[in-house]
Write a structure and sequence with these properties.
Keywords: ATP-binding, Ligase, Nucleotide-binding. By secondary structure, the chain is α+β, with helices and mostly antiparallel strands. The protein contains 15 helices and 11 strands. It has a single domain, classed as Creatine Kinase, Chain A, domain 2 (2-Layer Sandwich), CATH 3.30.590. The longest helix is centred in the C-terminal third of the chain and has 23 residues.
Length: 363
């Protein structure tokens, strides 16, 4: 039976005319709650210029694609009713003064983390894949860690920051890395060791609770899943589905390696941090650190290495052909960072760049 997959996408709320980020999440969420049949798929985020939706767990990638399109369309509708638009952008291209959301938790974060929290207006994509147990989940975490920077490069969609080109493909990853628990972590070895590490982090008093364990990939505190959190929100919804497909392939492959007694690759956290930095800097436009050799390789070669690594799992789930097509499409047109820069080069306007991204988000 195929593992289920769920996606959480954070979306930027923007003014339809100016392209500037707008602090309207409370109004959008109120409209979503009123229209919801049952529990709403939308949730608040740290800043009022963004909203998040979560899909239901799906075993079929076609079903997941339909769900992503549906909730993006709902987000567009709710935002329009509130006088705004939504854009699947991982940072605001135009200058913005972010507004912290309401609620005691967000107030605590603002006071505790200061400018780090205030400037943290970034939008990511989190992929949940079901696992049979915490032990299997931790075995997966230990075996996918070397491949996570490739997912960041694939999804990179945040070249602009406060009105200028950051010269990164994913500047969100640099901003997100300011949180004290963010980034890659060591091999855990067992579920017992994983939970001990989480308890130790919380015990320092630096983190409020388990929800603030912002590892690149972690055990979900709410669901029986592995949660991969390294990616930018993708501009094109087809890339979201490709990302989810590859994550499930990585989870399946890692679980098989664990059951076969294959140990995780022995790579230091410092090397993985460097690989993630390069992925955020280059995206798909230059070289990446190859997860096997830990040496520079052209981005297309590393993408193909990822596909080869999960090939058997994708064949078994029936996703290989679709993944190959989707990966070829990304290589041809580029990820969100390349598309944003191409729009800016064509129009000369960040406002027009946001407007075009609003249209792509709703496509």
């Amino acid at each position: 039976m195929a593992r289920t997959v769920g996606v959480e996408e954070e979306l930027l709320l923007v003014d339809a005319a100016s392209g500037e980020a707008r602090a309207l999440s409370s109004a959008v969420l109120a409209i979503a709650e009123k229209d919801a049949v049952g529990e709403s798929a939308f949730e608040p985020e740290l800043h009022r210029q963004q909203v998040e939706f979560s899909t239901h767990p799906c075993a079929d990638m076609g079903e997941l694609a339909a769900s992503v399109h549906r909730w993006r369309a709902e987000a567009v509708r709710h935002a329009t009713d509130a006088g705004a638009s939504v854009a699947a952008l991982a940072t605001s291209p135009l200058p913005v003064s972010p507004t912290i959301g309401t609620g005691e938790r967000y107030r605590w974060m603002a006071e505790r983390y200061g400018l780090t929290a205030q400037e943290q207006l970034t939008c990511g994509c989190h992929v949940h894949v079901s696992v049979a147990s915490d032990e299997e989940g931790v075995a997966v975490l230990d075996r996918v860690r070397c491949w996570l920077p490739v997912l960041l490069a694939l999804s990179a969609n945040s070249p602009f920051w406060q009105g200028q080109d950051s010269e990164y493909s994913s500047y969100r990853s640099r901003v997100w890395g300011r949180w004290p628990s963010a980034g890659p972590v060591e091999v855990h070895g067992s579920a017992e060791e994983y939970h001990a590490r989480v308890r130790s982090l919380i015990g320092t008093g630096v983190l409020r609770d388990e929800r603030m364990v912002y590892f690149d990939a972690r055990l979900s505190h709410r669901y029986p899943t592995v949660e991969v959190r390294i990616a930018d929100v993708c501009l094109d919804p087809a890339d979201t589905v490709l990302l989810a497909t590859l994550v499930r392939g990585l989870v399946d492959t890692a679980a098989r390696e664990w059951r076969a007694g294959e140990p995780p690759q022995d790579v230091s956290t410092s090397v993985l941090r460097a690989a993630s930095w390069q992925a955020g800097r280059a995206g798909l436009e230059d070289w990446l650190v190859h997860p096997r050799t830990l040496r520079p390789e052209p981005a297309p070669a590393v993408l193909r290495a990822l596909l080869d690594h999960v090939r058997d799992a994708l064949e078994d789930s029936g996703d290989l052909e679709a993944a190959e097509r989707a990966l070829a499409a990304v290589e041809r047109r580029g990820n969100g960072a390349r598309i944003q820069r191409e729009i800016l080069a064509r129009t000369g306007s960040l406002r027009d760049t946001v407007a075009e991204c609003v249209r792509i988000t709703a496509a």
